[in-house]
Amino acid sequence: MRRPARYQRSVSYNPGEPKPVNACFTILARNHDWRSLRESMKQMEDRFNHQFNYPYVFLNDKPFSEEFKNMTRSMTQANVYYGQIPQEHWSYPEWIDKDKAAAKRKEMEEKGVMYGGSESYRHMCRFESGLFFKHPLMQQFDYYWRIEPGIEYRCDINYDPFLYMKERGIKYGWTIAIYELMNTVPTLWDSVKKFVAQHPDTIPEHNSQWWVTRDNGTSYNGCHFWSNFEIADLSFYRSSQYSKFFEFLDREGGFFYERWGDAPVHSIAAALFLQKEQVHWFEDIGYYHPGWQHCPSGDTWLANRCTCDPKDTSKTITNAGWGKCSREWKLLPDTPKGHRKALL
């Protein structure tokens, strides 16, 4: 991937000073996560943010402890914000039958569905799907980069991905694409089809739908961007298209009666509403989340001082069977030049 000279290491922003992109890191965390977050933040600072000094926004459904604040604030010179999630964003909507939701959790747990019995996981998925960007602390930002406890960055990032996206009109960035566990989303695609039928005006002629369905929309193939890493233009999530989409899915009840995750929700929305060129695969970013990693290879691996092993198929999802979704992104047909919204 070739980049202009201004993305080289000589570019830097001081803590607190205005930046060319109004952006932040956003981290959903609990108080006991501070130790693993210190490790994640150290890697982010060493690999990227010591030079760019983008602020951190920490969100929690409970008040953050002073210990958490002290242990995370000390890891960066950048501004740090701490916020509590409003109760209405971490509770049951009025239309959800709580007894039915509890019965469904028990049923899924008995069937061995991952996180099938977890109530808090469902609140998290709903919050990340359509509510995080509505938090008051997020209103000041135009772009965000998601970080989670336990993640690792295994290559230097010598340019500003926020600026790279802004200058090109890119709305969504990812590193790992993987198949969904279909027993967590048995009726999600049925709900998506109902939304499309009721809101055909929201679906552009040239989108990326082929990546998530290969039978002209009949079924979902399970491909999704692993959203524990995502960089997004928040105008995408704040758009009327996405708002209608999330509100429709929220009313369908699948966040609580099944175990719909934010990753397939974000990914299907990107496929429906965005062109291929508005979605960017950051192939040069070496990223690990417990379970899988993406690792660059060749000259990029050497130049960015990577420490991951691109040949390790037990971890490098791109080269493993479940990484087929990543590889097939490149097979998605390009948008005709006269219709492209991104500057690529």
The overall average pLDDT, rounded, is 93
Enter the CATH topology name. Answer: Spore Coat Polysaccharide Biosynthesis Protein SpsA, Chain A
CATH architecture: Alpha-Beta Complex
* CATH homologous superfamily descriptor: Spore Coat Polysaccharide Biosynthesis Protein SpsA, Chain A
Strand order of the largest sheet: 3-2-1-4-9-6-10
Element layout with pairings:
Blueprint (H helix, E strand, L loop, with lengths): L22 E6 L5 H19 L3 E5 L5 H8 L6 E5 L13 H13 L8 H12 L12 E5 L4 E2 L7 H8 L3 E3 L2 E3 L8 H11 L24 E3 L5 E3 H4 L2 H13 L1 H4 L4 H12 L5 E3 L5 E3 L2 E3 L3 H6 L20 H6 L15
Parallel strand pairs: 1-2, 1-4, 2-3, 6-10
Antiparallel strand pairs: 4-9, 5-11, 6-9, 7-8, 11-12
Helix pairs in contact: 1-2, 4-10, 6-8
Q: How would you describe this protein?
A:
GO terms for molecular function: alpha-1,2-mannosyltransferase activity. It comes from Coemansia reversa (strain ATCC 12441 / NRRL 1564). The active site is at 230 (nucleophile). This is Glycosyl transferase. The chain is α/β, with parallel strands linked by helices and 344 residues long. It contains twelve helices and twelve strands. It has helices at 34-52, 66-73, 98-110, 119-130, 161-168, 188-198, 234-237, 240-252, 254-257, 262-273, 298-303, 324-329; strands at 23-28, 56-60, 80-84, 143-147, 152-153, 172-174, 177-179, 223-225, 231-233, 279-281, 287-289, 292-294. A seven-stranded mixed beta sheet has the order 3-2-1-4-9-6-10. A three-stranded antiparallel beta sheet has the order 5-11-12. α1 runs parallel beside α2 and α6 (188-198) packs across α8. The longest helix has 19 residues, at 34-52.
